Structures are given as structure tokens and as C-alpha cells.
Amino acid sequence: xxxHLLDHVRPYLDRNPEQRVAYVRAPxxxxxxxxxxxxxxxxxxxxxxxxLRTQGLMLVGPYANGKxxxxxxxxxxxxxxSPVQKVWVVQTREGAGLGHFYAGLLQALRAxxxxxxxxxxxxxxxxHLLASLKPKVLIFDEFHNALRGRTRDIEAVFAFLRRIGxxxxxxxxxxxxxxxxxxxxxxxxxxxxxxxxxVPRWPYDEAYLTLLDSLEAALPLARxxxxxxxxxxxxxxxxxxxxxxxxxxxxxxxxxxxxxSGEERMTPAGIDALRHVPISQRRNPLLRETLx
Length: 292
Prior knowledge:
Layout: H1 17-25, H2 33-47, E1 56-60, H3 67-81, E2 87-91, H4 98-108, H5 119-133, E3 137-141, H6 151-168, E4 171-176, H7 178-184, H8 188-191, E5 194-198, H9 206-217, H10 232-240, H11 244-261, H12 268-273, H13 285-291
Parallel strand pairs: 1-4, 1-5, 2-3, 3-4
Helix pairs in contact: 1-11, 2-3, 4-5, 10-11
């Protein structure tokens, strides 16, 4: 009966193995509490009244913890329901300097541009696009990339964020690692403009066990794996170090292996066979020496 699976997942048991593997590997939205809170806060920014001093938001947490997916999901849902795009996601470019910052912004706004254009021209083109497109929320993903340059460039980036609120009624949303929090809170003036929504590592608690149950129900394996039972839950938690991206990656790989082996369930032995290395252990000097 496959009662451990969601209703819409059960029919996939009749598919061939490669079709099932493709379904398991497909990106999937996990609507946990932090994600729902983030979407509510983003919706508030989108629906707020006109303001000369717009409030922004920081989504701050460790790498591989679902921050980008939260932002992209919100942007996609907005596009599905709104006749006019008011939410834009900017991939903040790596590299120091305002040129890299403007280049990422112009690319997100789908502007024809060249990286060799003078900084003044990039700034003017950005202003023209903001005036014509009238975005309400600009989401800067990996914003910590903009904080690695010279002090004067970083100050100019924050001056830009203040100005677009006053001049174009835009609420900036900054997504990144703890450096974003540190730089924003370096001055009271900037700290007053951004609320914080933390996206921390998951603790080993009931919410984590519920997450494992949700994942198991969404993956078409014929036999129940009981992911939330000890010691399997502990093993996954230790390997993932509480990062949701790592949790999903481990469970996905284990489910694929279970389909291809015919085991049809995830087991502690199957998890160990993945030889998954936690993020904190990937900078291994002894392993590096073997690569030389």
C-alpha cells in the first residue's frame, strides 16, 4: 500500500528506476517554519505603503542552509500571481568594487551592458532601469560578496541601498553569511534600516525529525525507511551538521542508491556507504596532500 508516502508520490512507484531517480533529484520546496516566516516578512515589504525611508530585511545564516531557495521561491510565486514584476533577485557578483556590484544588478534587471563600461555609465543605467521598472523589493543574494572590497566601495554600496529607498521606494533584502549582519550593524544608521531574520542551523529536535518524515513521504521508495528513528536520524544529523541543504543532499543520495540497489529503503548502512564528508571536514590537509 505504501502508506508512508504522500498520495501524489505513490504513482511514481510504477515508473521505471531512472524516472524515479529523476523525480527524487528534482528540486523541492520545504516549507519549514523559518521559510514561512521569511515569506511573510517579504510579503509585508511587498505590500507596504509608499515610504521615503523604506525598511529592509536581512536573511543571515550559514552556507547551504536554504536562504537562496527561500528568496527564489518567493520571487517565483510573486511572478505567478502578479501582472507586473515587483520583486527582482540580484546575484551579487564576486569581486571587489562597485563595477562588479552594478554589473550584477544590471544583469538581474536584464539590461544590455558591458563589463567594460565606465562606472558612471553603469550607475546612470541602473537609475534609468529602477525608474522605469519600479521594483518594490530588490533581493541581493550572496550579498557578502559586495563586502570584500575597499572601504569606500562598501560605503558606496550602502549609500546606494539608502538612496533607492528614498528615491525609488525600494526595500532591499540582503541574503548572506554573518558578515552581512556585522557590516549592517557597524553603524546605528544602517542597523535601523534593516530587520534581521536569522536562518540558523537546525537543532536536533522535533522540528528536525518532522522534516525527515516529510522528506521520506516525498520520495518514492516502496518500503518505509523510518528516517526519524534513532540511530538513522542521528547519523544524518551528524553528517549534515544541521544544514538543511546537506540534509536534503544526504537523503536524496541515499534514496537514489536505494532505488538502484533494489533495497527500496534508506538504512544506516546505506547512509554510511555514501561516504559523505561533512562540510567542516572538507578542508582536510592530509587529503589535500594526496592530490598533489
